[in-house]
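Appendix B, Record 12. Input sequence as logged:
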Amino acid sequence: MLAAVRNFAKSWPAKILMALLAVSFIGWGVNQGGAGVVAGDSVVKVGSRTINSAEFRNEYDNYKKRLEQQQGQPITVEQAQQGNLDAVVLNGVATRESLAELMSRIGIKPGDKLVLAQIEKIPAFFDPISGRFDKKTFQQRLGENGMTPERFDAVLRDEMATQHWAVAVQNGLTAPRAYGALASVFALESRDLAYVTLGPNAVPKPAEPTEAQLQAFINENKTQLSLPEMRILTVVPFTPQASGAATAPVDPAELQKRYQFRKDTLSKPETRSIVQIPAKDAATAQKVTAALRTGQAPEAVAKSVGVDAITFQDRPLTAISDRKVGQAAFKMQAGEVATVQGDLGLAVVKVVSVVPGREVTLEEARPMLEAEIRKDMVAEKVYAQTQAYDDAHQGGASLAESAQKAGVTATTVGPITAQGVNQQGGQLQGFPPKILETAFNLPAGGESEVTELGDGAYFAVRVERIIPAHVPPLAEIRPMVTQVWMQREIVKALEARAEAIRARVAKGESLEAASGLPVSRLPGVTRQTANTHQDLGREVLGRTFAAKQGEVWVARAPNGIVVGRVENVRTDAGPTAARLAEENRGALAQAIFREMGEAAQLYARTKLKAKVDPARARNAVGFEPVVEKKGAAEKKK
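Logged structural output:
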């Protein structure tokens, strides 16, 4: 919490991204439990605060976008569901709203002037020209981020209240010296470790398992040994690449036709800089014309007759608002002044400058036009193939026969899982997930309609056969199961021998005598130097620092089972310990502050009885509802 508050305090006036403000405390308390289910359209309700489905969807979208920016890649719906992203956001929002409601109830509320002063300091709301706060820019930025001024004001007040509370708690918070001393003793403690390692060769090799033992092992591990449902599919692809039209020659007549049609839009039109001064009558027009011809500034001339000059800077004919004025101006010479009766009234027009247009040639436009034509040819060819397939299929031809008549090739794929994994456990590369999704929603023998795949491609798929999820028979997996069973028996034997050695040492025998093996010794192991002994494994190192002096223990290691004993524990009570004791107090104070923040969040959610509706939250973000198992539902009843 401390890091979140300190970073927020430093950066939010300069980085007023609505997504960050809206979810700045999401992630706090994500493991906290919820309370009762909310009524109505409320997804979260805490006291007077309510978050409805639309607001929760906005919270979710902003949080997901933030994660995608951090990870540098998009998060799919499947990944979001698998990671329970809706629950993370739901608990985070509930915690945030609970803490904000608590701050409000105990009277921590920023004043209107303070809130306004902070808003006016945010660079995102500054006018780029004046460099000052601009109300229109403020409203525009909020609109771009899906937020109203009222909602932004509420969010900002909550953030400022939480910030002020955090700063008030943090200021002057110092960890006791005793805490620093304990931390330094802990950090500088060194231990002498003695241990023996029992490898696979330390116990006799077990006998080969019987048929009954293997079958019992399979029955015990059905979940791990079960193969998922697999399907054999026939796929008919209609792709731009397979159509052959992408490399077909372009008809010169079609190219010429396309060029004539696109020539005006591809060419650069003539542009002119024009000044237009409205005139209320002919006398005024004559006066303005005379003044412009003498070289007087158009703005001054227009002001002298009580109007504003209308300027068009390097604009094409189509940009001139008065059609007749534009037509006349584009027939005049540069520097020429004339009176024109326009559609919107009498006006005096001066042509300041002329930039001639440039017509693109056929050869210049050829690469682009040929690419466009080929793209259209491909689309037409693919469409024609799908129509030919549909006509043949509706006429009674099989899927394969229909594909042949359409000029495409039907391909058999599988057995394959819904995730695209084959029987050998390999991922089928380049196979579109949408085809799998469609196929796994069909029954055996079912066929899909011609379905759009994206990028101009289509497909049809038939489920030839469904292989239900099952545990393979022993004959198919005997070697693998036998190997795992043997390994398990070896581990059991090693653990039994290790426990026997531990018991003998605990009764007074030496480690050497009890094990009959060479003893390894590591003197002076500290928490700082432990990373140089990673070959022992995390469990062995963990027991080394958790055990009391003289205690004998057993732990698993990467290469076997370890029986170990800490023979000596030493602490440093000298100058280094004193220095660390003082240096540690700052970090300890931060740790205390984080725990205080977490305790405040938990207290707020418990005290205010925050209510959340997980089902409504899932629905708001478009997730599939959670289907409870029958047994679980009956237990709830």
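The two ends are 39 Å apart (CA to CA).
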